[in-house]
Design brief:
The protein has helices at 14-46, 52-59, 70-91, 233-247, 255-285, 312-320, 323-336, 381-391, 411-414; strands at residues 2-11, 105-108, 114-118, 124-126, 131-134, 139-143, 157-163, 173-181, 186-196, 206-212, 216-222, 226-231, 288-295, 340-345, 369-372, 377-380, 417-422, 426-429. By secondary structure, it is an alpha+beta fold. The relative contact order is 0.12.
Length: 438
């Protein structure tokens, strides 16, 4: 099995390479701005947004494209296309959403007049064709953009000497990212390596089902008759706090707005990784060999293909959460432990009783409560959905709810464990987490 790991590295010869890295960081910002302007023009004229292949075809001869190695320029355009796609999905339900901003910082005099404009240093990504790695001496050669080569046949590379933390071996280098740390005022490298690891045996033969949603980001039901809930309170708080703070900034593409966007993204990433890690740890503890995850295809659209309206806050929550990204993270972390992850259809899982199999949409009487009139049981609605996903009720050859027996225990369906996200310790039992503002 192959896995990718990213290692942070300190640049040892920073004073020799910082100017070249600065130039490439500025070039990445300029290319972003050119592509951003082009995308906005296409949107205004056609009502559509260009994808990354359109941007690459349109801008590959542009002078700003030549400020970076071709693969590095392609990555900038891919990131912009991803940002526009995210905005396009969000604007369907939130007309306050703004398209991706320009990467620039404006400076003003004491009268409020703009004196000059400066581009920030953007992250630059080099893929394999732009990298030459000297593993013996801890050095990497990064190809310069054509605009930054002083001579046609010389100075074609930025030779960077790096140092990672003790015990890290950098091999099979796939990607190098040069990231500028504004607080430290220096560059660092993120080295993406591919490793081959032996796939371990599954922890056991038990199974789990994961239901992803709005109020509770994840509900997990185990075949061991245990269940856990993971509320998305932290994501909600960040989703309300950061947009308000960003809106206060004078320049949506300025340094402060960029800092807030970065912090917001880092906290969201930390939440998703912490959640996946905690679920996998619980699966190992309970001998789970397979996790079924609800496939969220169509979660943002109704039966007519229109964007679902979950209410003002619901829309902000739903479109701000990367469900697909979380599933990918969970799959990766589970795979390392020998646990399989399978996406299964979510159809009818929220309105079917996981105990008797009776289907009735009215049985979900309110958010969080599911009552089955057939056997007069009440339990947590999200856990009910997670258990149906575990049973994979939409498969003809799956284990049916009713086949488990009429004497099936139901107490655990009503009393799941609840875990909240602690910024320093990851997910902890609710009683141990003290809430705090961003």
């Amino acid at each position: 099995m192959h896995i990718h790991r990213t290692y942070r590295a300190t640049i040892l010869n920073h004073c020799q390479v910082d100017e070249s890295l600065d130039r490439h960081g500025w070039s990445a910002s300029k290319l972003w701005n050119v592509a951003n302007y082009h995308s906005r023009q296409v949107w205004e004229n056609t009502g559509e947004i260009p994808d990354d292949s359109d941007l690459k075809s349109e801008l590959k001869t542009h002078n700003k494209y030549k400020g970076l190695h071709s693969q590095s320029s392609q990555r900038v355009l891919e990131e912009l296309a991803e940002a526009f796609n995210s905005w396009y999905g969000k604007r369907k339900s939130d007309d306050r959403a703004n398209p991706p901003g320009y990467r620039k910082k404006n400076y003003y005099d004491n009268k409020g007049c703009r004196v000059h404009e400066e581009h920030p240093r953007s992250t630059v990504t080099w893929k394999q064709k732009g990298i030459r790695h000297d593993t013996k001496n801890g050095r990497v050669r990064l190809s310069k953009g054509a605009n930054h080569k002083e001579h046609p046949r010389a100075w074609e590379y930025i030779l960077v000497e790096y140092e990672t933390r003790p015990g890290v071996t950098v091999e099979n280098l796939q990607q190098v990212r040069a990231v500028y740390d504004k607080e430290k005022g220096r560059w660092e490298l993120h080295l993406v390596c591919k490793h081959e690891v032996e796939t371990p045996d599954a922890p056991g033969e038990e199974s789990a089902g994961v239901d992803l949603g709005i109020c509770n980001f994840a509900a997990v039901a185990y075949s061991t008759e245990q269940a856990d809930l993971y509320p998305g309170n932290r994501l909600k708080q960040d989703g309300y706090y950061f947009p308000k703070e960003i809106a206060k900034c004078d320049d949506s593409g300025g340094e402060e707005a960029t800092r807030l966007h970065k912090k917001w993204s880092e906290r969201r990433t930390h939440f998703l990784h912490s959640l996946a890690k905690h679920i996998v740890e619980k699966c190992i503890e309970r001998g789970v060999g397979q996790i079924n995850v609800g496939k969220l295809a169509g979660v943002r659209e109704d039966e007519n293909g229109e964007s679902k309206n979950w209410g003002r806050h619901g829309n902000l929550d739903l479109h701000g959460w990367a469900f697909d990204r979380f599933t990918n993270i969970l799959e990766y972390k589970a795979k390392v432990e020998g646990i399989g992850v399978v996406e299964v259809p979510e159809r009818n899982t929220s309105k079917t009783c996981c105990v008797c199999g009776r289907e009735d949409e009215s049985q979900r009487v309110e958010r969080g409560l599911y009552v089955c009139e057939e056997h007069d049981d009440a339990f947590n609605a999200d856990v009910n959905g997670a258990e149906n996903i575990r049973l994979n009720i939409n498969q003809s050859n799956s284990e049916s709810s009713a086949s488990l027996g009429e004497d099936r225990s139901t107490g655990w369906l009503a009393q799941p464990g609840v875990y909240l996200h602690d910024l320093s310790r990851g997910f902890q039992p609710r009683a141990e987490v003290v809430d705090c503002k961003p």
